[in-house]
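Board notes (copied after class):
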Amino acid sequence: MRLILMLDQLRKGLQLYELPKIMKTHQDLCQPLFVTGEDNKVDAVFILENSRPVFSEIGSAKHRMETNIMNFFQDYLQEIEDSEQDGPSNNNIAPGSLTVGRIMQWLIGQGHKPLLPSEKKDFVINVKFHHDCDTAHCLFSYCQRL
């Protein structure tokens, strides 16, 4: 009962400045002021923050290569993200164009951030490097030594 009285007092205070009228005409501008929302769009930072690479011994040639791969991957994701924002229309992405969300879809099978709190808490992208691709019967035909 007390909550209703408080909300009624808030409503009367908003009416002093005709805010309900403004809120009705400009809902898209006023909604973030009263309703918290989450951005479920995947970006480069989200992928990189949740990546857990398993590196080889520090100082080894393998570790150096793995570090370079992660650095190149970071640059690549940021380049794609920049091209998404610089495109002709941010809302209309061509069906064949590459986006950060589509890269995440390819990596883990979903192109959006986890929605459930339990999924958010435990969300990790494990990254393992296979150096002996040619001797380990790699399934990919494009494996080559770097």
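Comment from the instructor: The radius of gyration is 24 Å. The CA atoms of residues 102 and 109 lie 9 Å apart.
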